[in-house]
């Protein structure tokens, strides 16, 4: 795995933990840290989403190999 793969994996873990907190405790860590729907929190959400798309792409590429 290269640095981009590790970064994507880290962001997916952060996103997963955040969604777990939302589901279990109704606590949004990203919104707490950066402000509810502030520009920075929206960037964090977008980057986590892009990392998920990147991981789907790399997973499908690995499954074909």
From TrEMBL:
Regions that span the bilayer: 6-27, 39-57
Keyword field contains Transmembrane: yes
Cited Pfam families: DUF378
Organism: Noviherbaspirillum denitrificans
Membrane keyword on record: yes
UniProt keywords, alphabetically: Membrane, Transmembrane, Transmembrane helix
UniProt-recorded name of the protein: DUF378 domain-containing protein
């Amino acid at each position: 795995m290269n640095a981009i793969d590790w970064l994507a994996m880290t962001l997916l873990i952060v996103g997963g933990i955040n969604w777990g907190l939302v589901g279990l405790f109704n606590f949004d860590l990203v919104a707490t840290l950066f402000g509810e729907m502030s520009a920075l929190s929206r960037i964090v959400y977008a980057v986590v989403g892009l990392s998920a798309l990147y991981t789907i792409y790399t997973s499908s590429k690995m499954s074909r190999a």
